[in-house]
Amino acid sequence: MVWLWILLAVALLAVLLCRMHLGVWAAYDGAAFRLDVRVGLLRIHILPPKAKKSRPKRPEKKKKTQESDETKGEKRFSFTLEDGKDALRTLFPPLQRALGRTRRGIRIKPLRLSLTLGGQEDPAAAGELCGKLQAAVWGGMPLLEKLVDIREPYIHTGVDFSAPGPAAEGEIGITLRLGTLLAVGFGLLIPAVKWFLRWRKRCKVRRIGEAGPEKDGEAPAA
Question: How far does Cα 212 stand from its chain's mean position?
């Protein structure tokens, strides 16, 4: 009978953990980014980091291969627009199904976003891009509201023809249960792994193509 009580205790603990609330709150005021995380009743401040007491600096160790490793990493992995489109085609359908099974178990409150494009250099291009962004918002929000619980969203896009560049600010809060997060994660696990393997293969092909015959150990043709 002891093993039965152990199984019941483990099952009860799993249920309680799955019902535990998680939350993320992020805000950007145009100058600084703020981020807080909530786990159950515990709230953790992430950004901006708290000021630490100044300590005497220790002499830094020389890293001979640091620069070469960074350069190697940049050449090894790259992300292109086609990779992003492939990720969207691969991950969005299973994400939509996983969110549908949660029955709007994810709550977004607040959702306040404002983006103003700068149109000083090219007013026509800025106006065209603003129109595309507005079409994406109006077309995507109804679908998103069917999958997640969004309370009083506010999204603004506009153009400032006297500004040289874009300006953005906003605030978003996401709350969900751990069980919901696990359900969505399991639904995306296999498609995400398949996409990641394809992406790594494409990066390898690009790296070989950029290396050329000289870096592959072949002498250039005379």
Answer: 34
Rounded to an integer, what distance in angstroms lies between the CA atom of residue 222 and that of residue 216?
17
User: What is the H or E stretch that residue 138 is in?
Assistant: helix 123-147
CB 18 within 8 A of CB 182: yes
DSSP run (H or E) holding 124: helix 123-147
The H or E element that residue 43 is part of is strand 42-47
Antiparallel, parallel or unpaired: β 149-150 and 154-160: unpaired
Check the CA dihedral 42-47-51-56 and report its sign: positive
Give the pLDDT confidence of 9-53 residue by residue, as tens digits. 888 888 888 889 999 999 999 889 999 999 988 999 998 887 776
CA dihedral 64, 66, 68, 72 (to 10 degrees): 150
6 phi and psi angles, rounded to 5 deg: -65, -45
The answer to whether 179 and 18 have CB atoms below 8 angstroms apart is yes
CA pair distance 222, 215, nearest whole angstrom: 16
